[in-house]
Fold each of these.
Amino acid sequence: MTESGRRQTHLTVRRRRLLEFFFCQSLGVTWKTLEKDAFRLEPCASDRLIDYIDDFLNHPEYDPGDAPIPQKDGSICRLQ
């Protein structure tokens, strides 16, 4: 995979994990419950919406399942 492709993959994962985290915090359900919904909604969420969610969640580094959330630049934090 090219570096560009890897970065795009990380950004896609970022979108889905932030949506999962947001729904988990806002709706009070387990992240696993909404995993498939977040996967379906991820392509529809605008970059602006994802930025708002990231700000609202105070820029989390890990999702509720302890998976790293890629940063806006596509980088990934090291595992805890």
Amino acid sequence: MTDPFRQDGAGKPDELDRLWTPHRMAYIRGENKPVDESVGECPFCRIPGLDDEAGLVVRRGELAYAVLNLYPYSPGHLMICPYRHVADYTDTTDAEAAEIADLTRAAMRVVREVSGAHGFNIGMNQGAIAGAGISAHLHQHVVPRWAGDQNFMPIIGRTKTLPELLTDTRELLAKAWS
């Protein structure tokens, strides 16, 4: 049965099903993006002060930590952040750079173990012009990938699907990391 309320962009009824992801609107509207990315307002500076569950922190190191991305590209999308408010990778200390690398490698191992990820996209967007949503605080993305994971949904449907709640993913990864 055709739902007469489903319409294409021109207002004509279509035969497409809808997969609603209203949580993405907060990201699209920039609701959680700080106007001021200074130390006091930066979410990557605030997260370590929260308990692990509330902050979605998966692992804490001495100089950096691993946290789930609140707006993930795929399930298990982590970010590795130094505690220090530093924007540019070249400004990290040798110890910070080493711990970011160690946490990245460990994140890959853990995600691969619990989810069978086939590959990863690893990267840092350095500066707003390079796509950094929060450019004042360095964060490295660890994005798990699976064969066929990026089908038509994000390209045509402008939607990304997640199979479980972020809090459940955080708990699973944190347990496996221990």
